[in-house]
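In this supplementary section we document a worked example of the pipeline. Step one takes a protein sequence of length 158 as its only input; no multiple sequence alignment statistics are reported here. Step two produces a three-dimensional model, which step three serialises into structure tokens for compact storage. The input and output of this example are shown verbatim.
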Amino acid sequence: MIIIGLDPGLTCTGWGIVAKSGSRLSHVANGQIRTDAKAAMADRLVELDAALTDVILHHRPDAGAVEEVFVNVNPQSTLKLGQARGVAMLSLARAGMPVAEYSTKVVKKALVGTGGAEKSQIQAMLKVLLPGVKLAGEDASDALAVAITHANMLGSHR
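The serialised model returned by step three reads:
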């Protein structure tokens, strides 16, 4: 089974793809999608959707998971994040796959064992779980963590 995880953001959306075979996980790919900060909001959302669609068509995942929105101090940032997250969920659902959602705390707990883990701890655990992985950046790391969380949750529901 191929699983894609997304860490949505308007400026940068991370994506990470893992393959699950039994209880074994392996890295497939990861990357980041950046939108043009000078472009209109609608154009940025179209840009994000097109890039995500390309990733989905290239890797053909069976299932997807998206990190939930956390509320920022700045309401405008929260709204922009929510719009990017909506596009991410739409891209996955339109491709016909089931979409799961996980809070940041659940992802951190699933990977490191504590919901208060630091980003550096997540990245260190990714290197243990996916030996030799080259991380495309922080957002891609977070997305891989979401994909791994979903892979592990799939195993616990069967």
